[in-house]
Specification:
heterodimer, A: 193 residues, alpha/beta, Pyruvate-ferredoxin Oxidoreductase, domain 3, 6-stranded mixed sheet, 7 helices, 39% helix, globular, B: 583 residues, Rossmann fold, 4 domains, 7-stranded mixed sheet, 5-stranded parallel sheet, 22 strands, 35% helix
C-alpha cells in the first residue's frame, strides 16, 4: 500500500489550506484516493499552520507520521526547519526564502529569528530547493501566487501527479479571472523546481 | 459522483440529503463549518443561537413540529446544552433530531479533553461515530432515520481529525422524509415525574432495540478480514490507523454505533480471535465494556492515555514496533515558538496593556481576548468556561479583602456575554456586588472566524437582522453605571477603569470597536521608527504586536502588517514612533 505523503507548513494566512486543497483536487483528477488533515481556528492569528496530504490508491488515515513525509513544502524558512523531522531520509523539501519574525518580547535578547537559517535548512535537507518565490510572485504582479509557484516546483518531482492534474485542479479551484495567472505562476514554479 | 469535502461539510451534506429542515448551534472549533456549509443548501433554515442550550431547544421544538433538525456544537458546548439534552432523551422526538458533539482530543483549540461518549451513555441517547469524511456524510443521513425509528435524539460524535479531515465523498440526492405534524401527547412531552417514570422504561426499550441494530448490522458494525488470530475492536478516527497498520493481518470489528455498544457482537468477535485489542482515542470507553463482560483485552495500558492517536502510537500498541523513524535531528536548531497573538490593530491590545500596567486582577473568558493571558501581555488571571468571568469576578472581588478592593475586573467578549454573561451580571446586581465588568465589544464572534451574534445586526447568511444593544441590556438588568469607551484611546481606558473600580456599586465598561480582522479596518498610515529618538526601552515591543519586530536592537515595523491603530505610538514616550506622512 504505497502512499505519497506531502507535508505543508507555514504561518497563518499564507494560503496553506488552499494549497492543500489544490493537491487534493489534483489527486482526484488523477483518479487517486486522498486524505488531508489540518487544524483550523488559530490559523488567522499568526500561529504556525500545517497541513497533511496523503495520496494513494487507497488512503486509510490522514496524519503523516514524523519521518514519513516524501515531500515538505514550506512557505517560510523557520517553519521549514520546524517540520524538517517529518521528512524521510530521501524526502525532498521546497522552501520559500521568506522570513516572518515571530512576536518578540524583548529588544535586548538579540532577535527571535534563528541566524544562518538557510545554512541550517541545507544542513538538515541537503537536497532542499530554496526558492525565492516571493520575487517571482511580485514579478507576476500578485504576491498570493507564492503557493502556486511552490506547487509548480513540486510538480517536477512528484510521480503520482502529472502536470495536467495540477492544471485541472487550478482550473477547478480558482475563478476564471485568476486562472491564467495561476497557470503562469505554476509554470514559473516548474522552472524554479 | 465524487466530491472533495471537509468532514464538517460532509455532515451538512448528509443532513441535507436526509431532508433536514432546520439547523442551529453556536460556533465552536472544530464544529463551526457544519452550519456554515448548511446555508448553501436550499430548503433549510439555518441560524446561530446565542448559546448551545437555546440552539438545542429550538431544534427540539422543530422536531416536535415534525421536522428533521440538527444542532451543532463543540464538546464543551454540549455541557451548556446538557440540561435539554438529558431531558430530551426521555421525551424522544417527532421529526428526527441529530446533535453534533465535536470533541477535541489533544485540545487543539479547547480548554479540556472530555470524551463525550460518556455523555451519550449517561443521557441514554443513541450515538454514532464516523471515522472519515464519507462516513460523516452517510452516518449523519442515517442518524436521522435511526432517530425516528428509535424515538431518540442521536448524538453524532465527531473529533477534530474527522471534522477537519478533507477527503472523497459520494454525495446522494435529497430524500423527502415522512410528512409529520405536531401531535399533542403530554405523557411524552411534559416531563412531570409521573410521565417521566413511564418514559424511563421506553428509554431502556429503545436502547435494547438500538443495541440489536449494532449487534446485527454489517453496515453499522462491519467485520473486516474475519478469521484472523489477532482481533481489533475500534471506532472513530482510530479505525484508519488500525487499518493502515494491520492491513490484512488482523480482523477488525469497527463500531459505528457506540451507544449502546453492540455487546453480543463484541463478545462473539472476541471469542473468534486469539488476541484482542481495543484501539480508541481518549478514555477506555469500549475497553471498560469488554472488561465488564469478563473479556481479556489489551488496550489503554499500551497507548497514550491523553491526546490523539496516530500511526506511530497505534503501530507501537499493536505490533510493538516503529517502522517509520525520525532521521533528521533538530536538537541543534534554534526554532522559536510561534504562538497565536492578537491581530495587528486588534482593539483588545490597548485594553490588556492597560490592565497589565495597572496591575489588575482579571477574571477572563473565552474568545480571541484569551490571548491577553500570554506573553508579553500576561494580563489575565483566569479563564474557565463561557461566561465564567462575570461570576468569578463577583466572587473574587467579594472575598479578596477590603485592602484588595478595586483591583478585580471581569473581562468578557460581546458574543460570550450574550452566550452566558447576562445571568452573571444579574447576579452581580441583585446580590449587591461592587465589582466591575468590562465587555470587549467587537461586534463579532471573532475567534471562530467572525460569525455574527445577537449584537451584530446580521444573520448567518449575512442578511440584516435585529441588533441588540449592550447598553440597554445592562441598564435593563439593573446596572446603573454603564459607560462606553474607545479602546484605542488609552488615557480614556485608564480613567474609566479607575473611576469604575472606585465606585461602590456594579459598573460595566463597554469597550466598543469593530473586529479589525472581520471588518478589514485600516486606521492610519503605518507607524515608522525614528532610530535617533529611540532609547530602546522596549515598551512598544511589550504591546505584543506582530507588526513590531526587532532589527539590530531597535524596533522594526512591518508596514504591510501595521494598521496604524496607534496603540504602540501612545506607549512610546520619546517620540520615536510616529505615523508615516501620507504620500
Amino acid at each position: 500500500m504505497k502512499i505519497t505523503n506531502i507535508m505543508l507548513s507555514g504561518v497563518g494566512g499564507q494560503g496553506i489550506l488552499t494549497s492543500g486543497r489544490i493537491l487534493a483536487l489534483a489527486a482526484i483528477d488523477a483518479g487517486l484516493d486522498v486524505k488531508m488533515s489540518e487544524v483550523h481556528g488559530m490559523s488567522q492569528r499568526g500561529g504556525n499552520v500545517d497541513s497533511h496530504i496523503r495520496i494513494g490508491e487507497k488512503v486509510p488515515s490522514s496524519l503523516i507520521p514524523k519521518g514519513g513525509a516524501d515531500y515538505l513544502i514550506s512557505f517560510e524558512m523557520m517553519e521549514a526547519l520546524r517540520y524538517m523531522d517529518y521528512l524521510k531520509p530521501d524526502g525532498k523539501a521546497y522552501v520559500s526564502k521568506l522570513k516572518i519574525t515571530p512576536l518578540s518580547s524583548n529588544l535586548k535578547k538579540g532577535g527571535s529569528y534563528p541566524e544562518n537559517i538557510e545554512e541550517m535548512i541545507v544542513k538538515k535537507a541537503p537536497s532542499v530547493k530554496l526558492i525565492d518565490a516571493e520575487s517571482v510572485a511580485k514579478e507576476l504582479g500578485d504576491i498570493r501566487m507564492v503557493n502556486i509557484i511552490l506547487l509548480g516546483a513540486l510538480s517536477k518531482d512528484i510521480k503520482v501527479l502529472g502536470r495536467a492534474n495540477f492544471e485541472n485542479a487550478i482550473r477547478e479551484r480558482f475563478n476564471k479571472k485568476v486562472v491564467d495567472l495561476c497557470l503562469k505562476a505554476f509554470e514559473r514554479g516548474m522552472e524554479n523546481g | 459522483m465524487k466530491k472533495l469535502m471537509l468532514g464538517n461539510e460532509a455532515v451538512a451534506r448528509g443532513a441535507w440529503e436526509a431532508g433536514v429542515a432546520f439547523g442551529s448551534g453556536y460556533p465552536g472549533t472544530p464544529s463551526t463549518e457544519i452550519l456554515e456549509a448548511l446555508i448553501h443548501y436550499d430548503d433549510v433554515l439555518v441560524q446561530w443561537a446565542p448559546n448551545e442550550k437555546v440552539g438545542y431547544e429550538v431544534v427540539m421544538g422543530a422536531t416536535l413540529a415534525g421536522k428533521r433538525a440538527i444542532a451543532t456544537m463543540k464538546h464543551v458546548g454540549l455541557n451548556v446544552a446538557a440540561d435539554p439534552f438529558f431531558s430530551s432523551s426521555y421525551m424522544g422526538v417527532n421529526g428526527g433530531l441529530v446533535v453534533v458533539s465535536a470533541d477535541d482530543p489533544a485540545m487543539h483549540s479547547s480548554q479540556d479533553e472530555q470524551d463525550n461518549r460518556y455523555l451519550a451513555k449517561a443521557a441514554k441517547v443513541v450515538m454514532v461515530e464516523p471515522s472519515d469524511v464519507e462516513e460523516s456524510r452517510w452516518m449523519t443521513k442515517e442518524a436521522f432515520a435511526l432517530s425516528e425509528e428509535l424515538d431518540t435524539p442521536v448524538l453524532l460524535r465527531m473529533t477534530t481529525r474527522v471534522c477537519h479531515q478533507t477527503g472523497i465523498t459520494f454525495p446522494e440526492d435529497r430524500i423527502t422524509p415522512p410528512e409529520k405534524a405536531f401531535v399533542k401527547d403530554i405523557s411524552k412531552y411534559v416531563l412531570l415525574p409521573g410521565h417521566a417514570k413511564q418514559r424511563r422504561h421506553k428509554v431502556e426499550e429503545r436502547l435494547n432495540k438500538a443495541r440489536e441494530i449494532g449487534n446485527t448490522s454489517d453496515r453499522w458494525s462491519p467485520i473486516i478480514n474475519p478469521g484472523k488470530k489477532i482481533g481489533v475492536i475500534t471506532s472513530g478516527v482510530a479505525f484508519g490507523y488500525v487499518l493502515e497498520v494491520m492491513g490484512e493481518e488482523a480482523s477488525i470489528l469497527k463500531l459505528g454505533i457506540t451507544n449502546p455498544l453492540p455487546l453480543e457482537r463484541m463478545k462473539k468477535f472476541a471469542g473468534s480471535v486469539e488476541t484482542l485489542f481495543v484501539v480508541e482515542e481518549l478514555e477506555p470507553y469500549i475497553e471498560e465494556a469488554l472488561k465488564a463482560m469478563g473479556i481479556k483485552v489489551k488496550g489503554s495500558e499500551l497507548r497514550p492515555y491523553t491526546g490523539e492517536l496516530d500511526l506511530k502510537s497505534v503501530e507501537k500498541m499493536l505490533k510493538g514496533t516503529e517502522s517509520v523513524k525520525v532521521t533528521v535531528d533538530l536538537s541543534d536548531a534554534k526554532i522559536n515558538n510561534r504562538p497565536p497573538t492578537l491581530c495587528p490593530g486588534c482593539s483588545h491590545r490597548g485594553m490588556f496593556t492597560t490592565f497589565r500596567d495597572m496591575g489588575l486582577r482579571v477574571m477572563g473568558d473565552i474568545g480571541c481576548y484569551t490571548l491577553g493571558a500570554v506573553n508579553p501581555l500576561k494580563a489575565m488571571d483566569s479563564c474557565m468556561c463561557m461566561g465564567a468571568s462575570v461570576g468569578m469576578a463577583e466572587g473574587l472581588d467579594r472575598f479578596c479583602g477590603e485592602k484588595e478592593r478595586g483591583k478585580t475586573i471581569g473581562v468578557i467578549g460581546d458574543s460570550t456575554f450574550f452566550h452566558s454573561g447576562i445571568t452573571g451580571l444579574i447576579d452581580m446586581v441583585v446580590n449587591r456586588s461592587k465589582a466591575t465588568l468590562v465587555i470587549l465589544d467587537n461586534s463579532l464572534t471573532a475567534m471562530t472566524g467572525g460569525q455574527p451574534h445577537p449584537g451584530t445586526g446580521m444573520d448567518i447568511k449575512g442578511m440584516a437582522a435585529p441588533k441588540l444593544d449592550l447598553v440597554e441590556i445592562c441598564h435593563a438588568v439593573g446596572v446603573k453605571r454603564v459607560r462606553v469607551i474607545d479602546p484605542y484611546k488609552l488615557d480614556e481606558v485608564k480613567a474609566a477603569l479607575e473611576e469604575e473600580l472606585a465606585a461602590e456599586e456594579v459598573s460595566v465598561i463597554i469597550a466598543k470597536a469593530p473586529c479589525v480582522l472581520g471588518f478589514k479596518k485600516k486606521f492610519n498610515e503605518p507607524v515608522e521608527v525614528t532610530i535617533e529618538k529611540c532609547i530602546r526601552c522596549g515598551k512598544c515591543i511589550r504591546v505584543g504586536c506582530m507588526a513590531i519586530g526587532e532589527k539590530d536592537g531597535y524596533p522594526d515595523i512591518d508596514e504591510n502588517l501595521c494598521t496604524g491603530c496607534g496603540v504602540c505610538v501612545q506607549f512610546c514616550q520619546d517620540g520615536a514612533l510616529n505615523f508615516r506622512k501620507k504620500k
